[in-house]
Protein backbone atom coordinates (compact mmCIF):
# COMPACT_ATOMS: atom_id res chain seq x y z
CA UNK A 1 0.00 0.00 0.00
CA UNK A 2 1.32 3.37 -0.98
CA UNK A 3 1.53 5.72 1.98
CA UNK A 4 1.32 9.47 1.58
CA UNK A 5 -0.40 11.50 -1.05
CA UNK A 6 -0.75 10.32 -4.63
CA UNK A 7 -2.16 12.59 -7.30
CA UNK A 8 -2.63 10.69 -10.57
CA UNK A 9 -3.49 12.29 -13.93
CA UNK A 10 -5.71 14.90 -12.31
CA UNK A 11 -7.42 17.48 -14.49
CA UNK A 12 -9.81 20.13 -13.26
CA UNK A 13 -12.03 22.32 -15.37
CA UNK A 14 -14.11 25.03 -13.76
CA UNK A 15 -17.56 25.48 -15.17
CA UNK A 16 -17.18 22.46 -17.49
CA UNK A 17 -20.67 22.60 -19.00
CA UNK A 18 -20.84 26.37 -19.24
CA UNK A 19 -20.24 28.50 -22.31
CA UNK A 20 -16.65 29.18 -21.30
CA UNK A 21 -15.11 26.26 -19.45
CA UNK A 22 -11.91 27.24 -17.64
CA UNK A 23 -9.25 24.54 -17.48
CA UNK A 24 -7.41 24.97 -14.16
CA UNK A 25 -5.02 22.04 -14.06
CA UNK A 26 -4.31 19.40 -16.66
CA UNK A 27 -2.98 15.90 -16.32
CA UNK A 28 -1.12 16.36 -13.08
CA UNK A 29 0.75 13.55 -11.44
CA UNK A 30 2.42 14.22 -8.13
CA UNK A 31 3.45 12.22 -5.09
CA UNK A 32 4.08 13.60 -1.65
CA UNK A 33 5.82 11.16 0.62
CA UNK A 34 5.28 10.85 4.32
CA UNK A 35 6.92 13.77 6.08
CA UNK A 36 7.99 15.44 2.88
CA UNK A 37 7.84 19.22 2.41
CA UNK A 38 6.73 19.99 -1.13
CA UNK A 39 6.23 23.50 -2.46
CA UNK A 40 4.13 24.24 -5.52
CA UNK A 41 5.57 27.28 -7.28
CA UNK A 42 3.88 28.98 -10.18
CA UNK A 43 2.51 32.19 -11.62
CA UNK A 44 -0.73 33.55 -10.15
CA UNK A 45 -3.83 31.83 -11.42
CA UNK A 46 -2.01 28.75 -12.66
CA UNK A 47 -4.27 26.32 -10.87
CA UNK A 48 -1.97 25.42 -8.00
CA UNK A 49 -4.61 26.42 -5.47
CA UNK A 50 -7.19 24.36 -7.35
CA UNK A 51 -4.98 21.34 -6.88
CA UNK A 52 -4.81 22.06 -3.16
CA UNK A 53 -8.60 22.21 -2.90
CA UNK A 54 -8.90 18.91 -4.76
CA UNK A 55 -6.40 17.27 -2.43
CA UNK A 56 -8.29 18.70 0.56
CA UNK A 57 -11.45 17.06 -0.79
CA UNK A 58 -13.31 20.37 -1.06
CA UNK A 59 -13.45 20.11 -4.86
CA UNK A 60 -13.79 17.09 -7.12
CA UNK A 61 -11.28 16.47 -9.86
CA UNK A 62 -12.83 16.45 -13.33
CA UNK A 63 -10.53 13.57 -14.27
CA UNK A 64 -7.95 11.45 -12.53
CA UNK A 65 -7.70 10.38 -8.94
CA UNK A 66 -6.27 11.46 -5.62
CA UNK A 67 -5.45 8.90 -2.98
CA UNK A 68 -4.16 9.37 0.51
CA UNK A 69 -2.54 6.43 2.29
CA UNK A 70 -4.06 4.27 -0.40
CA UNK A 71 -7.62 5.53 0.06
CA UNK A 72 -9.51 7.56 -2.54
CA UNK A 73 -10.07 11.18 -1.47
CA UNK A 74 -13.77 11.99 -1.81
CA UNK A 75 -14.48 14.43 0.99
CA UNK A 76 -12.66 16.75 3.40
CA UNK A 77 -11.01 15.22 6.42
CA UNK A 78 -9.14 16.53 9.46
CA UNK A 79 -6.11 14.51 8.39
CA UNK A 80 -5.71 16.80 5.37
CA UNK A 81 -5.93 20.22 6.93
CA UNK A 82 -5.96 23.38 4.87
CA UNK A 83 -4.58 26.80 5.77
CA UNK A 84 -5.65 29.82 3.77
CA UNK A 85 -3.98 33.12 3.05
CA UNK A 86 -6.22 34.72 5.66
CA UNK A 87 -6.41 32.94 8.98
CA UNK A 88 -10.24 32.75 8.75
CA UNK A 89 -10.56 32.38 12.51
CA UNK A 90 -14.16 32.50 13.68
CA UNK A 91 -14.67 35.98 15.14
CA UNK A 92 -17.31 34.78 17.60
CA UNK A 93 -14.89 32.40 19.32
CA UNK A 94 -11.86 33.20 21.44
CA UNK A 95 -8.50 32.24 20.00
CA UNK A 96 -8.42 29.20 22.28
CA UNK A 97 -11.90 28.06 21.23
CA UNK A 98 -10.95 28.54 17.61
CA UNK A 99 -7.98 26.26 18.06
CA UNK A 100 -10.02 23.53 19.72
CA UNK A 101 -13.06 23.91 17.44
CA UNK A 102 -12.36 20.63 15.66
CA UNK A 103 -11.80 18.82 18.95
CA UNK A 104 -15.15 20.07 20.23
CA UNK A 105 -16.85 18.83 17.07
CA UNK A 106 -15.10 15.49 17.56
CA UNK A 107 -16.69 15.34 21.01
CA UNK A 108 -13.61 15.66 23.20
CA UNK A 109 -14.10 16.66 26.82
CA UNK A 110 -13.62 20.32 27.81
CA UNK A 111 -10.67 19.30 29.95
CA UNK A 112 -8.92 17.66 27.02
CA UNK A 113 -9.72 20.68 24.88
CA UNK A 114 -8.17 23.03 27.42
CA UNK A 115 -5.05 20.91 27.64
CA UNK A 116 -4.77 20.81 23.86
CA UNK A 117 -5.27 24.56 23.60
CA UNK A 118 -2.51 25.21 26.10
CA UNK A 119 -0.09 22.82 24.43
CA UNK A 120 -0.79 24.21 20.96
CA UNK A 121 -0.61 27.84 22.04
CA UNK A 122 2.83 27.11 23.47
CA UNK A 123 3.83 25.29 20.30
CA UNK A 124 3.01 28.23 18.04
CA UNK A 125 4.25 30.86 20.49
CA UNK A 126 0.91 32.33 21.50
CA UNK A 127 0.97 31.61 25.23
CA UNK A 128 -1.56 33.86 26.96
CA UNK A 129 -3.54 34.62 23.82
CA UNK A 130 -6.11 31.89 24.40
CA UNK A 131 -8.74 34.20 25.86
CA UNK A 132 -8.18 36.96 23.33
CA UNK A 133 -10.46 37.53 20.39
CA UNK A 134 -9.13 37.04 16.87
CA UNK A 135 -9.40 40.73 15.96
CA UNK A 136 -7.09 41.58 18.86
CA UNK A 137 -4.22 39.65 17.27
CA UNK A 138 -1.84 40.84 14.56
CA UNK A 139 -1.88 39.20 11.14
CA UNK A 140 1.10 36.99 11.97
CA UNK A 141 -0.38 35.91 15.28
CA UNK A 142 -3.69 35.10 13.62
CA UNK A 143 -1.92 32.93 11.09
CA UNK A 144 -0.13 31.12 13.93
CA UNK A 145 -3.48 30.51 15.58
CA UNK A 146 -4.75 29.10 12.29
CA UNK A 147 -1.71 26.81 12.21
CA UNK A 148 -2.45 25.70 15.78
CA UNK A 149 -6.05 25.01 14.81
CA UNK A 150 -4.88 22.80 11.96
CA UNK A 151 -2.34 21.02 14.16
CA UNK A 152 -5.00 20.33 16.81
CA UNK A 153 -6.50 17.78 14.43
CA UNK A 154 -3.10 16.04 14.15
CA UNK A 155 -3.15 16.15 10.37
CA UNK A 156 -1.05 13.82 8.27
CA UNK A 157 -0.60 16.47 5.65
CA UNK A 158 -0.80 20.24 5.96
CA UNK A 159 -2.10 21.95 2.84
CA UNK A 160 -1.14 25.61 2.79
CA UNK A 161 -2.48 28.09 0.24
CA UNK A 162 -0.05 31.04 0.18
CA UNK A 163 -0.22 31.11 3.97
CA UNK A 164 2.18 33.99 4.47
CA UNK A 165 1.37 36.11 1.42
CA UNK A 166 -0.61 38.66 3.43
CA UNK A 167 2.17 39.23 5.97
CA UNK A 168 4.99 41.76 5.85
CA UNK A 169 8.43 40.51 4.90
CA UNK A 170 9.90 40.37 8.41
CA UNK A 171 6.93 38.51 9.85
CA UNK A 172 7.02 36.24 6.87
CA UNK A 173 10.59 35.14 7.47
CA UNK A 174 9.83 34.46 11.13
CA UNK A 175 6.74 32.48 10.25
CA UNK A 176 8.68 30.39 7.77
CA UNK A 177 11.29 29.33 10.30
CA UNK A 178 8.50 28.74 12.78
CA UNK A 179 6.70 26.51 10.33
CA UNK A 180 9.91 24.55 9.69
CA UNK A 181 10.36 23.93 13.42
CA UNK A 182 6.83 22.69 13.79
CA UNK A 183 7.06 20.55 10.68
CA UNK A 184 10.33 18.98 11.84
CA UNK A 185 8.87 18.11 15.23
CA UNK A 186 5.70 16.65 13.74
CA UNK A 187 5.63 13.85 11.22
CA UNK A 188 3.23 15.60 8.87
CA UNK A 189 3.86 16.22 5.22
CA UNK A 190 3.42 19.74 3.92
CA UNK A 191 2.11 20.78 0.52
CA UNK A 192 2.51 24.53 0.28
CA UNK A 193 1.51 26.82 -2.56
CA UNK A 194 3.42 30.03 -3.18
CA UNK A 195 4.47 32.37 -5.96
CA UNK A 196 7.60 33.45 -4.07
CA UNK A 197 10.79 31.74 -5.19
CA UNK A 198 12.55 32.72 -2.00
CA UNK A 199 9.85 31.12 0.14
CA UNK A 200 9.95 27.95 -1.96
CA UNK A 201 13.70 27.65 -1.62
CA UNK A 202 13.73 28.35 2.09
CA UNK A 203 11.19 25.68 2.87
CA UNK A 204 11.01 22.87 0.37
CA UNK A 205 12.50 19.41 0.10
CA UNK A 206 11.25 19.60 -3.43
CA UNK A 207 9.96 22.53 -5.47
CA UNK A 208 7.37 21.70 -8.11
CA UNK A 209 7.22 24.42 -10.76
CA UNK A 210 3.87 24.88 -12.49
CA UNK A 211 3.21 26.08 -16.01
CA UNK A 212 0.79 28.88 -16.75
CA UNK A 213 -2.89 27.95 -16.85
CA UNK A 214 -3.94 25.21 -17.32
CA UNK A 215 -1.42 24.15 -14.69
CA UNK A 216 0.91 21.34 -15.55
CA UNK A 217 4.14 20.35 -13.91
CA UNK A 218 6.99 22.05 -15.71
CA UNK A 219 9.88 20.90 -13.59
CA UNK A 220 10.76 19.48 -10.20
CA UNK A 221 13.70 20.91 -8.29
CA UNK A 222 14.90 18.83 -5.34
CA UNK A 223 16.78 20.73 -2.63
CA UNK A 224 18.96 18.77 -0.29
CA UNK A 225 20.65 21.65 1.52
CA UNK A 226 20.17 21.51 5.30
CA UNK A 227 17.90 24.08 6.95
CA UNK A 228 18.06 26.90 7.92
CA UNK A 229 19.33 27.76 4.49
CA UNK A 230 21.54 30.68 3.64
CA UNK A 231 19.96 32.29 0.62
CA UNK A 232 23.29 33.92 -0.26
CA UNK A 233 25.22 30.68 -0.53
CA UNK A 234 26.34 29.83 -4.10
CA UNK A 235 24.21 26.70 -4.08
CA UNK A 236 21.01 28.55 -3.20
CA UNK A 237 21.75 31.35 -5.65
CA UNK A 238 22.14 28.77 -8.41
CA UNK A 239 18.80 27.22 -7.48
CA UNK A 240 17.17 30.63 -7.36
CA UNK A 241 18.44 31.47 -10.83
CA UNK A 242 17.22 28.13 -12.07
CA UNK A 243 13.74 28.60 -10.62
CA UNK A 244 13.56 32.18 -11.81
CA UNK A 245 14.29 31.12 -15.36
CA UNK A 246 11.65 28.40 -15.20
CA UNK A 247 9.10 30.76 -13.75
CA UNK A 248 9.87 33.73 -16.00
CA UNK A 249 8.77 31.87 -19.12
CA UNK A 250 5.48 30.93 -17.52
CA UNK A 251 4.79 34.39 -16.18
CA UNK A 252 5.41 35.71 -19.68
CA UNK A 253 2.98 33.17 -21.11
CA UNK A 254 0.31 33.90 -18.55
CA UNK A 255 0.61 37.64 -19.23
CA UNK A 256 0.21 37.06 -22.97
CA UNK A 257 -2.80 34.88 -22.33
CA UNK A 258 -4.45 37.50 -20.14
CA UNK A 259 -3.86 40.15 -22.79
CA UNK A 260 -5.46 37.90 -25.40
CA UNK A 261 -8.43 37.29 -23.15
CA UNK A 262 -8.95 41.02 -22.81
CA UNK A 263 -8.54 41.74 -26.51
CA UNK B 1 -1.72 76.46 25.10
CA UNK B 2 1.04 73.95 24.56
CA UNK B 3 3.31 75.90 26.91
CA UNK B 4 0.70 75.88 29.61
CA UNK B 5 0.17 72.15 29.42
CA UNK B 6 3.88 71.52 29.46
CA UNK B 7 4.49 73.83 32.40
CA UNK B 8 1.49 72.91 34.52
CA UNK B 9 2.08 70.91 37.70
CA UNK B 10 0.88 67.33 38.08
CA UNK B 11 -2.17 68.16 40.17
CA UNK B 12 -3.64 70.38 37.54
CA UNK B 13 -2.97 67.83 34.87
CA UNK B 14 -4.79 65.20 36.86
CA UNK B 15 -7.71 67.51 37.36
CA UNK B 16 -7.92 68.38 33.70
CA UNK B 17 -7.77 64.73 32.66
CA UNK B 18 -10.56 63.99 35.13
CA UNK B 19 -12.59 66.78 33.58
CA UNK B 20 -11.81 65.49 30.13
CA UNK B 21 -12.98 62.04 31.06
CA UNK B 22 -16.24 63.41 32.41
CA UNK B 23 -16.74 65.46 29.27
CA UNK B 24 -16.03 62.45 27.16
CA UNK B 25 -18.65 60.41 29.01
CA UNK B 26 -21.22 63.16 28.74
CA UNK B 27 -20.45 63.98 25.15
CA UNK B 28 -23.05 61.68 23.49
CA UNK B 29 -25.77 63.01 25.79
CA UNK B 30 -24.76 66.60 25.09
CA UNK B 31 -25.02 65.97 21.37
CA UNK B 32 -28.48 64.48 21.83
CA UNK B 33 -29.58 67.64 23.60
CA UNK B 34 -27.93 69.89 21.05
CA UNK B 35 -29.65 68.00 18.26
CA UNK B 36 -32.99 68.29 19.99
CA UNK B 37 -32.62 71.99 20.80
CA UNK B 38 -32.13 72.94 17.17
CA UNK B 39 -35.54 71.47 16.39
CA UNK B 40 -37.27 72.81 19.50
CA UNK B 41 -35.58 76.20 19.12
CA UNK B 42 -36.81 76.61 15.58
CA UNK B 43 -40.33 75.63 16.61
CA UNK B 44 -40.40 78.02 19.55
CA UNK B 45 -38.97 80.77 17.34
CA UNK B 46 -41.74 80.18 14.80
CA UNK B 47 -44.32 80.48 17.58
CA UNK B 48 -42.71 83.65 18.94
CA UNK B 49 -42.75 85.27 15.51
CA UNK B 50 -46.36 84.27 15.14
CA UNK B 51 -45.71 81.95 12.18
CA UNK B 52 -47.02 78.89 14.00
CA UNK B 53 -50.63 78.97 15.18
CA UNK B 54 -50.52 77.76 18.82
CA UNK B 55 -53.83 76.01 18.34
CA UNK B 56 -52.56 73.90 15.46
CA UNK B 57 -48.81 73.75 16.15
CA UNK B 58 -48.41 74.38 19.87
CA UNK B 59 -44.66 74.53 20.68
CA UNK B 60 -43.18 72.35 23.44
CA UNK B 61 -43.48 74.93 26.20
CA UNK B 62 -47.25 74.92 25.65
CA UNK B 63 -47.94 71.20 25.27
CA UNK B 64 -45.55 70.36 28.08
CA UNK B 65 -46.84 73.10 30.35
CA UNK B 66 -49.78 71.39 31.97
CA UNK B 67 -48.77 67.76 32.29
CA UNK B 68 -51.56 66.61 34.65
CA UNK B 69 -54.00 68.00 32.14
CA UNK B 70 -52.44 65.77 29.49
CA UNK B 71 -52.12 62.76 31.77
CA UNK B 72 -55.85 62.41 32.24
CA UNK B 73 -56.20 61.25 28.63
CA UNK B 74 -54.06 58.23 29.31
CA UNK B 75 -55.57 55.01 30.48
CA UNK B 76 -53.63 51.77 30.19
CA UNK B 77 -56.85 49.75 30.03
CA UNK B 78 -58.18 51.87 27.21
CA UNK B 79 -61.61 51.93 28.79
CA UNK B 80 -61.83 55.71 28.73
CA UNK B 81 -63.01 56.66 25.30
CA UNK B 82 -62.13 60.31 25.73
CA UNK B 83 -61.00 63.00 28.11
CA UNK B 84 -62.15 62.69 31.65
CA UNK B 85 -62.30 65.57 34.03
CA UNK B 86 -60.29 63.74 36.66
CA UNK B 87 -57.80 60.92 36.99
CA UNK B 88 -54.67 60.10 35.07
CA UNK B 89 -51.22 60.23 36.58
CA UNK B 90 -47.67 59.67 35.45
CA UNK B 91 -48.29 55.98 36.14
CA UNK B 92 -51.18 55.76 33.76
CA UNK B 93 -48.96 57.36 31.10
CA UNK B 94 -46.22 54.85 31.82
CA UNK B 95 -48.85 52.11 31.70
CA UNK B 96 -49.93 53.17 28.23
CA UNK B 97 -46.31 53.29 27.07
CA UNK B 98 -45.71 49.87 28.62
CA UNK B 99 -48.61 48.34 26.71
CA UNK B 100 -47.37 49.70 23.38
CA UNK B 101 -43.82 48.61 24.21
CA UNK B 102 -45.02 45.14 25.10
CA UNK B 103 -46.78 44.79 21.74
CA UNK B 104 -43.69 45.95 19.88
CA UNK B 105 -41.39 43.68 21.86
CA UNK B 106 -43.60 40.63 21.48
CA UNK B 107 -43.89 41.23 17.73
CA UNK B 108 -40.16 41.76 17.36
CA UNK B 109 -39.22 38.65 19.30
CA UNK B 110 -41.72 36.53 17.38
CA UNK B 111 -40.70 38.03 14.06
CA UNK B 112 -37.00 37.68 14.69
CA UNK B 113 -37.04 34.07 15.85
CA UNK B 114 -39.52 32.86 13.26
CA UNK B 115 -37.82 34.64 10.36
CA UNK B 116 -34.49 33.19 11.48
CA UNK B 117 -35.98 29.71 11.67
CA UNK B 118 -37.76 29.98 8.31
CA UNK B 119 -34.73 31.60 6.64
CA UNK B 120 -32.41 28.86 7.83
CA UNK B 121 -35.02 26.25 6.93
CA UNK B 122 -35.22 27.58 3.38
CA UNK B 123 -31.48 27.14 2.90
CA UNK B 124 -31.20 23.91 4.89
CA UNK B 125 -34.05 21.93 3.31
CA UNK B 126 -33.99 22.32 -0.46
CA UNK B 127 -37.59 21.36 -1.17
CA UNK B 128 -38.91 23.50 1.68
CA UNK B 129 -36.86 26.37 0.28
CA UNK B 130 -38.19 25.95 -3.24
CA UNK B 131 -41.73 25.93 -1.89
CA UNK B 132 -41.33 28.84 0.52
CA UNK B 133 -39.12 31.32 -1.26
CA UNK B 134 -41.58 32.45 -3.97
CA UNK B 135 -44.28 32.82 -1.33
CA UNK B 136 -42.10 34.90 0.99
CA UNK B 137 -40.92 37.09 -1.88
CA UNK B 138 -44.50 37.70 -3.02
CA UNK B 139 -45.82 38.50 0.46
CA UNK B 140 -42.86 40.73 1.36
CA UNK B 141 -43.93 43.86 -0.56
CA UNK B 142 -47.44 43.92 0.95
CA UNK B 143 -47.68 46.79 3.41
CA UNK B 144 -48.49 45.86 7.01
CA UNK B 145 -51.38 48.32 6.77
CA UNK B 146 -52.96 46.03 4.18
CA UNK B 147 -52.73 43.22 6.70
CA UNK B 148 -54.65 45.25 9.25
CA UNK B 149 -58.13 44.03 8.28
CA UNK B 150 -56.80 40.49 8.07
CA UNK B 151 -55.39 40.85 11.57
CA UNK B 152 -58.74 41.98 12.88
CA UNK B 153 -60.60 39.21 11.00
CA UNK B 154 -58.36 36.58 12.50
CA UNK B 155 -57.66 37.92 15.97
CA UNK B 156 -60.47 40.34 16.65
CA UNK B 157 -59.75 43.26 18.96
CA UNK B 158 -56.98 43.37 21.56
CA UNK B 159 -53.29 42.62 21.77
CA UNK B 160 -53.01 39.78 19.22
CA UNK B 161 -53.77 41.85 16.09
CA UNK B 162 -51.26 44.53 17.13
CA UNK B 163 -48.56 41.95 17.82
CA UNK B 164 -49.41 40.21 14.58
CA UNK B 165 -48.96 43.44 12.63
CA UNK B 166 -45.55 44.11 14.16
CA UNK B 167 -44.65 40.54 13.36
CA UNK B 168 -45.78 40.98 9.73
CA UNK B 169 -43.90 44.26 9.46
CA UNK B 170 -40.54 42.60 10.09
CA UNK B 171 -41.04 38.91 9.30
CA UNK B 172 -40.69 38.91 5.51
CA UNK B 173 -37.89 41.45 5.42
CA UNK B 174 -36.01 39.58 8.11
CA UNK B 175 -36.50 36.25 6.33
CA UNK B 176 -35.03 37.67 3.13
CA UNK B 177 -32.22 39.28 5.15
CA UNK B 178 -31.49 35.91 6.76
CA UNK B 179 -31.16 34.32 3.32
CA UNK B 180 -28.83 36.99 2.02
CA UNK B 181 -26.73 36.75 5.19
CA UNK B 182 -26.46 32.97 4.90
CA UNK B 183 -25.33 33.36 1.30
CA UNK B 184 -22.63 35.83 2.25
CA UNK B 185 -20.98 33.77 4.98
CA UNK B 186 -17.30 33.61 3.93
CA UNK B 187 -16.79 30.38 2.03
CA UNK B 188 -13.57 29.69 3.94
CA UNK B 189 -15.51 29.50 7.22
CA UNK B 190 -17.59 26.68 5.80
CA UNK B 191 -14.69 24.92 4.11
CA UNK B 192 -12.77 24.94 7.39
CA UNK B 193 -15.74 23.54 9.26
CA UNK B 194 -16.01 20.73 6.71
CA UNK B 195 -12.32 19.94 7.06
CA UNK B 196 -12.66 19.83 10.82
CA UNK B 197 -15.35 17.23 10.54
CA UNK B 198 -18.61 19.20 10.78
CA UNK B 199 -21.68 17.69 9.18
CA UNK B 200 -24.33 19.91 7.64
CA UNK B 201 -26.25 20.39 10.87
CA UNK B 202 -23.09 21.29 12.77
CA UNK B 203 -22.06 23.76 10.07
CA UNK B 204 -25.39 25.53 10.44
CA UNK B 205 -25.29 25.50 14.20
CA UNK B 206 -21.64 26.31 14.86
CA UNK B 207 -20.70 28.43 11.86
CA UNK B 208 -23.60 29.86 9.89
CA UNK B 209 -25.79 30.86 12.83
CA UNK B 210 -23.12 32.83 14.73
CA UNK B 211 -21.83 34.29 11.47
CA UNK B 212 -25.19 35.75 10.43
CA UNK B 213 -26.51 36.94 13.80
CA UNK B 214 -24.66 40.29 14.03
CA UNK B 215 -25.90 41.62 10.70
CA UNK B 216 -29.40 40.32 11.37
CA UNK B 217 -29.44 42.22 14.61
CA UNK B 218 -28.53 45.40 12.75
CA UNK B 219 -31.38 44.72 10.32
CA UNK B 220 -33.70 44.18 13.26
CA UNK B 221 -32.69 47.53 14.71
CA UNK B 222 -33.33 49.24 11.39
CA UNK B 223 -36.80 47.73 11.31
CA UNK B 224 -37.53 48.65 14.90
CA UNK B 225 -38.89 52.00 13.78
CA UNK B 226 -41.13 50.36 11.21
CA UNK B 227 -42.45 48.19 14.02
CA UNK B 228 -43.25 51.28 16.09
CA UNK B 229 -45.08 52.90 13.22
CA UNK B 230 -47.15 49.81 12.66
CA UNK B 231 -48.09 49.27 16.29
CA UNK B 232 -49.51 52.80 16.44
CA UNK B 233 -51.72 52.14 13.45
CA UNK B 234 -52.88 48.88 14.96
CA UNK B 235 -53.64 50.53 18.26
CA UNK B 236 -55.49 53.37 16.58
CA UNK B 237 -57.73 50.96 14.75
CA UNK B 238 -57.93 47.59 16.33
CA UNK B 239 -56.81 47.57 19.95
CA UNK B 240 -58.45 50.38 21.84
CA UNK B 241 -55.52 51.18 24.06
CA UNK B 242 -51.91 52.28 23.85
CA UNK B 243 -50.15 55.33 22.44
CA UNK B 244 -51.80 54.85 19.06
CA UNK B 245 -55.25 54.98 20.58
CA UNK B 246 -54.40 58.20 22.43
CA UNK B 247 -53.08 59.78 19.24
CA UNK B 248 -56.22 58.80 17.37
CA UNK B 249 -58.41 60.17 20.13
CA UNK B 250 -56.42 63.43 20.13
CA UNK B 251 -56.91 63.69 16.39
CA UNK B 252 -60.66 63.07 16.67
CA UNK B 253 -61.07 65.66 19.44
CA UNK B 254 -58.82 68.15 17.64
CA UNK B 255 -56.48 68.32 20.65
CA UNK B 256 -53.23 69.48 19.07
CA UNK B 257 -51.42 69.71 22.39
CA UNK B 258 -52.19 66.07 23.11
CA UNK B 259 -51.09 65.04 19.61
CA UNK B 260 -47.68 66.58 20.10
CA UNK B 261 -47.37 65.33 23.65
CA UNK B 262 -48.05 61.78 22.49
CA UNK B 263 -45.68 62.18 19.57
CA UNK B 264 -42.99 63.26 22.04
CA UNK B 265 -43.64 60.15 24.11
CA UNK B 266 -43.44 57.94 21.02
CA UNK B 267 -40.17 59.55 19.96
CA UNK B 268 -38.62 59.11 23.39
CA UNK B 269 -39.79 55.51 23.71
CA UNK B 270 -38.51 54.62 20.24
CA UNK B 271 -35.17 56.21 21.07
CA UNK B 272 -34.97 54.22 24.31
CA UNK B 273 -35.82 51.04 22.43
CA UNK B 274 -33.02 51.64 19.98
CA UNK B 275 -30.57 52.25 22.83
CA UNK B 276 -31.75 49.10 24.57
CA UNK B 277 -31.34 47.02 21.42
CA UNK B 278 -27.85 48.40 20.97
CA UNK B 279 -27.06 47.38 24.51
CA UNK B 280 -28.39 43.86 23.96
CA UNK B 281 -26.42 43.68 20.74
CA UNK B 282 -23.20 44.63 22.50
CA UNK B 283 -23.77 42.13 25.29
CA UNK B 284 -24.99 39.18 23.26
CA UNK B 285 -22.86 39.66 20.16
CA UNK B 286 -19.63 40.54 21.90
CA UNK B 287 -17.47 39.38 19.01
CA UNK B 288 -18.58 42.27 16.84
CA UNK B 289 -16.30 45.22 17.42
CA UNK B 290 -17.95 48.36 18.80
CA UNK B 291 -17.40 50.18 15.53
CA UNK B 292 -19.61 47.87 13.52
CA UNK B 293 -22.25 47.86 16.22
CA UNK B 294 -22.52 51.63 15.90
CA UNK B 295 -23.89 53.09 12.74
CA UNK B 296 -27.42 54.38 12.33
Structure overview:
Chain A is α/β, with parallel strands linked by helices and 263 residues long. Chain A is built from 8 helices and 10 strands. In chain A, helix 6 links the parallel strand 7 and strand 8. In chain A, helix 4 crosses helix 5. The model of chain A has no long low-confidence stretch (mean pLDDT 90). Chain B is mainly α and 296 residues long. Chain B has 13 helices and no strands. Chain B is globular and about 70 Å long. The chains are: A alpha/beta (263), B mainly alpha (296). Chains A and B meet through strand 6 and helix 3 of A and helix 9 and helix 10 of B.
Beta-strand residue fraction of chain B: under 5%
Helix/strand order of chain B: HHHHHHHHHHHHH
Biggest sheet character of chain A:
6 strands, mixed
Instruction: Categorize the overall geometry of chain B.
Output: globular
**Count of individual beta strands of chain B:** 0
Strand content of chain A: 15-25%
Counting helices, strands and paired strands, the structural category of chain B is: mainly alpha
Give the N-to-C terminal Cα separation of chain A: 50 Å
Rg from Cα of chain A: 19 Å
Low-confidence stretches of chain A: none
Write out the strand line-up for the largest beta sheet of chain A, numbering strands in chain order.
6-7-8-3-9-10
Helix content of chain B: over 70%
Summary tags:
heterodimer, A: 263 residues, alpha/beta, six-stranded mixed sheet, four-stranded antiparallel sheet, 10 strands, 38% helix, B: 296 residues, mainly alpha, 13 helices, globular, disordered C terminus
What is this structure's SSE topology?
The complex is a heterodimer of chains A (263) and B (296).
Chain A: E1 5-14, E2 22-32, E3 37-41, H1 48-56, E4 63-68, E5 71-72, E6 80-83, H2 95-99, H3 101-105, H4 110-123, H5 139-152, E7 157-161, H6 169-185, E8 189-194, H7 197-203, E9 206-210, E10 217-222, H8 234-262
Parallel strand pairs in A: 3-8, 3-9, 6-7, 7-8
Antiparallel strand pairs in A: 1-2, 1-4, 4-5, 9-10
Helix pairs in contact in A: 4-5
Chain B: H1 2-7, H2 10-48, H3 60-63, H4 67-71, H5 90-124, H6 126-139, H7 144-155, H8 159-183, H9 187-195, H10 200-239, H11 243-252, H12 256-284, H13 290-293
Amino acid sequence: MALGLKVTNVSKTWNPDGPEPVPAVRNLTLDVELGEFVVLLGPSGCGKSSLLYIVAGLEDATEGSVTFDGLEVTEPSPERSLIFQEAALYPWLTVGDNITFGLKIAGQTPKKQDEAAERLLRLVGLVGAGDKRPHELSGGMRQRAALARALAMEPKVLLMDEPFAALDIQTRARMQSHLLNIWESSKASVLLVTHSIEEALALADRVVVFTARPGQIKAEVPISAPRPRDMRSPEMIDLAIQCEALLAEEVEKSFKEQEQELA
Amino acid sequence: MTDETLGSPMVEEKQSSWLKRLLKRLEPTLWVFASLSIFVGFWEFAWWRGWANPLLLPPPHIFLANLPDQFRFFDPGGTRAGALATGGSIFSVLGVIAWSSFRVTAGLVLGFTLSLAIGIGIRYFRIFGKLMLPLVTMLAPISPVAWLPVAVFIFGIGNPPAIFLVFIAIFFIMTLATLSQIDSVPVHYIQLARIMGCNKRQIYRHVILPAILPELFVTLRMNLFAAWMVVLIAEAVGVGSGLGQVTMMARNTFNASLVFFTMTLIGLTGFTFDQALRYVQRKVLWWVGPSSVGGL
